[in-house]
Design a protein that fits this description.
single chain, mainly beta, Immunoglobulin-like, six-stranded mixed sheet, 3 helices, about 50% strand, flat
Length: about 725
């Protein structure tokens, strides 16, 4: 009966739980947003039950970016015989919203009767910070320049807090202020959560040198002060001209120039000095012009403290009078004053003459430059000459004609003092073709214009090589016996050819170049490259290539290539017999061929008209070795000679042994012939013990071999 009673009680409890009805009104309680670390005012709700339950409250699962603690009052043993007021407060520890579920438990059974939601939000106060800019670019003091020299930097103010930041004022110390281009003035607001705004700060120095100051951004959340620095610069200049602007005598029909130096003489540090105009006024003749002036600025900041103004005087042909003028220089100096320089120029004439009228240059390699040759140009006139050299000839560009220091070319004329002054004219020749060319050059300047002729011959080098060389037939692997053959290289030009390298390419059995190698082919001459043909096998050898690296840049493909061809052949030497069968022999007892087989001869027959060297006779095969007379190896097998050799063969292990006799001639690593050798090697027990053995079960055969061996010894 107890199990049934327990079941009925459980059903009764379940029925009671299901019937219970607990509600929170409202179902979600939201507290007021609260500063992190403080406690919010309470949010109030009404908890009621239709069954007069007694309940407990507990905070369950939570979500959201915030973090903190909810306090429920009351939270334990709440009798809901009538609706009860429940207060909820929230103390945030991390900014953000936090949402939690509150579970309503039956006080007696801990059964969850219902749930409701609590919501809290934490925030942080505004936090001000500002970036520190690098030093401001240099700016001019007492800025009266035509172009503004004030400089700016940008400063960013950021609110890393949660609440809105109110900027209440922006104050400065030093030579700094808010630039008119700045989007923000002395007050504004910046949103929380990393919001930021930028101020453009202007630097306008009141004195030269390093200037420091600060800007302070004020707010109720505190102030942010940023230190500022910049450099104030000066702008002032002076002018100087050697000779006080006097050109002296300038050859009529020519032009001369003088330089007026403009120097930045302001206090350090110096700032950019901008020039507006440089003009000529009060000229008594229209001979003067400004040919060069500072293009824009003179600035001490990059080391440029001086600029040059070039004034030219160009008296016309026949002019002999003196002309004067004033040069006016305008710049945005701190004082704003214009500076002037008076100039004067007198016309004159010169008389020019050359020491010789023609020059022959040495023959010169095409694409290079010849040695220098010279002539003298003298001025016997009454004024200094200012001359250049020009040629209207087609071949003029092949010659370089210039005076001292490269003058006389382009606008850089040569100055020749009057009254017998002279210059040395140097010339070089740079031919582009193989030919004799000439060009006429005129001396351009005041007075008579003499001319001279320069002649030069261009020469070159021309490599000529055979397309291919066929070598005579050569024995395979001739080694040191290979016969060198010349490959003739010719130079059909008038300049030596330098051979920088020689290489054999292509077939691996073509051979090699014999030392010493030629390094030069004289003009209109030839040299021989000695090449060895060393075939590795009989028959047509793989073609090789003789690669000739040289300084002849006109060879098609970059360098000549000579195809090397040849045929290899075998040494025609017969080795007899084709095979040797020694029958049964004792292990360890040498067998001389002439004794074991008196009717057999090991014979070498040379069928060629050439001698060969017997380098080595060897045997291949496990358990066999061979010996020959000491004077055989290294001896000569004469042309058409037959030679009998006696061999001694020894077995080192018992059994049926097969080997191969190999004959090596000259330096050929390959054997000339192969002779098969057979032997049945017998182990002999000389201490008794009942017989002998071949190691392979051939007892009777071994015995016969031993008896035969003993008979021969008796004989």
């Amino acid at each position: 009966m107890r199990p049934l009673l327990t079941t009925l009680v459980a059903l009764c409890v379940m029925s009671t739980t299901a019937a219970a009805s607990v509600n929170m009104n409202p179902s979600s309680l939201t507290t007021t947003s609260t500063l992190v670390g403080q406690t919010s005012p309470p949010a109030t709700g009404t908890l009621s039950s239709t069954n007069n339950d007694r309940v407990d409250l507990s905070v369950g699962s939570c979500s959201g970016s915030g973090s903190g603690t909810f306090i429920l009052t009351p939270s334990q043993s709440i009798l809901l015989s009538s609706p009860k007021t429940v207060d909820v407060t929230y103390m945030p520890t991390v900014a953000g919203t936090r949402t939690c579920t509150v579970n309503v438990f039956d006080h007696n059974t801990s059964t969850i009767l219902s749930t409701f939601t609590v919501i809290g939000n934490g925030y942080t106060p505004p936090m001000i910070s500002a970036t520190t800019p690098s030093a401001f670019p240099n700016a001019r003091v007492l800025d009266t320049s035509v172009a503004a020299h004030n400089t700016t930097r940008q400063i960013t103010v950021q609110n890393d807090g949660g609440a809105v930041l109110s900027i209440t004022n922006v104050t400065f110390t030093g030579d700094f202020s808010i630039d008119p281009s700045s989007a923000y003035g002395t007050s504004t607001t910046i949103n929380g959560g990393g919001g930021a705004k930028n101020w453009v700060i202007r630097f306008n120095p009141s004195a030269s040198g390093t200037r420091t100051g600060s800007v302070t951004f004020m707010s109720y959340a505190g102030n942010a002060t940023v230190n500022l620095s910049g450099t104030g610069t000066t702008g002032s200049y002076a002018i100087t001209q050697a000779g006080n602007g006097a050109f002296g005598t300038v050859a009529s029909g020519s032009s001369a120039g003088i330089d007026i130096a403009v120097t930045h003489d302001g206090l350090d540090p110096k700032g950019p000095l901008t020039f507006s105009t440089v003009t000529v006024s009060n000229a008594t003749q229209s001979w003067f012009a400004i040919s060069a002036q500072p293009t824009n600025q003179i600035t001490g900041a990059v080391g440029q403290t001086t600029g040059i103004i070039t004034v030219t005087c160009s008296p016309p042909a026949g002019a002999t009078q003196t002309a004067t003028a004033t040069v006016n220089i305008n710049a945005d100096a701190d004082t704003g004053a214009m500076k002037t320089q008076n100039v004067s120029c007198t016309g004159g004439a010169s008389v020019l003459a050359l020491s010789i009228a023609s020059v022959d240059m040495d023959p010169t390699l095409v694409g290079t430059t010849s040695a220098v040759k010279t002539i003298t140009l003298q001025n016997a006139g009454t004024s200094d000459a200012n001359v250049g050299f020009a040629s209207g000839s087609t071949n003029g560009p092949r010659f370089s004609v210039q005076g001292p220091g490269g003058c006389g070319m382009g606008a850089n004329n040569c100055a020749i003092p009057m009254g017998g002054g002279s210059i040395m004219i140097t010339m070089t020749f740079s031919p582009t073709v193989e030919a004799t060319v000439a060009a006429s050059f005129n001396v351009q300047g005041a007075g008579a214009a003499p001319s001279f002729i320069v002649t030069g011959r261009g020469v070159d080098r021309h490599m000529s090589a055979p397309e291919s060389v066929q070598f005579a037939d050569e024995y395979r692997n001739p080694g040191s016996l290979a016969t060198p053959r010349p490959v003739t290289l010719m130079n059909q030009g008038e300049y030596p050819i330098m051979i920088t390298d020689l290489q054999i390419g292509g077939g691996t059995d073509v051979g090699s170049i014999v030392e010493p190698r030629p390094t030069m082919i004289p003009l209109l001459g030839s040299v021989d490259v000695m090449v060895k043909f060393s075939p590795l096998e009989a028959g047509k050898a793989t073609d090789g290539q003789l690669l000739i690296m040289n300084d002849d840049t006109k060879v098609a493909g970059g360098m000549p290539i000579v195809i090397l061809s040849g045929n290899g052949k075998d040494r025609n030497v017969d080795v007899l017999p084709a095979s040797i069968d020694l029958g049964a022999r004792a292990v360890g007892i040498p067998t001389r061929l002439s004794i074991a087989l008196p009717d057999e001869r090991f014979r070498l027959k040379n069928n060629e008209m050439d001698d060969f060297t017997i380098r080595k006779i060897a045997i291949e095969g496990d358990g066999l070795n061979v010996a020959i007379d000491d004077d055989i190896e290294g001896s000569t097998l004469m042309a058409m000679q037959e030679r009998d050799l006696d061999l001694v063969i020894n077995a080192t292990v018992p059994g049926s042994l097969d080997g191969t006799l190999l004959v090596y001639l000259d330096e050929d690593p390959l054997p000339q012939s192969i002779v098969a050798v057979r032997m049945t090697a017998v182990s002999v027990d000389i201490h008794g013990g009942g017989g002998c053995s071949t190691g392979s079960g051939a007892g009777p055969l071994a015995l016969l071999g031993l008896l035969a061996l003993r008979r021969r010894r008796k004989n």
